[in-house]
Hints:
The protein has 224 residues and is of the alpha/beta class. It has helices at 16-25, 48-57, 71-81, 96-105, 150-165, 182-188, 197-200, 205-223; strands spanning 3-6, 30-36, 61-67, 85-89, 109-114, 132-136, 170-174, 192-195.
Amino acid sequence: MARIAPSLLAADFARLADEIAKVERGGAGLLHLDVMDGHFVPNLTMGPPLVKSVRNVTTSVLDVHLMITDPDTYAPVFIDAGADMVSVHYEAATHLDRTLHMIQDRGAKAGVVLNPATPVAVLEDILDVADYVLVMSVNPGFGGQKFIPNSLKKIRQLDALRRERGLGFKIEIDGGVGPDNVEAIVQAGCDWLVAGSSVFGSADAAHAVTAMQQLADGALLLRA
């Protein structure tokens, strides 16, 4: 099943519990949280206390994306705060194999993130360890950017490797996802679609999630 994962970075933080309830009414069960440190990317966002607050108001799966320079130190902190999934950037993890295993040993799913300029080939020896691969379809650091079309090529490459090697990792995409490209993304082989502005920037966040999920479901049938 392809899943729409609303990105809380685009939500109204003053009404976060209500915003979460809206997208859950629309069928969302996977919530994406972007953590930025102002070093690895040029922005600052949420920390462990906010993740803990989100954990207290939802039973949805919390997908924490670490856009930070020191994932080994902070991944455990976010897991303790309630993260079910933690992804780290290939460029930020000095010893990626060890980092992914550390996340898994602490009870969370471990993902690796590819920036737009980073090729799929660098993950050749880690795909049997990672639980998922997150393809950045914008340059990380800011929401509301336009989708980079080359991301579809990366998804196809990852899907082909997954099939050839009989692996079970999931493919996720983040950046510029909306109703106009959901079908193409799912048909390329993507499993989880992070959507921020197209959900929380719409007049009805619940309807936006439902509508995109319907598009994803239809595209999945064509992919099969």
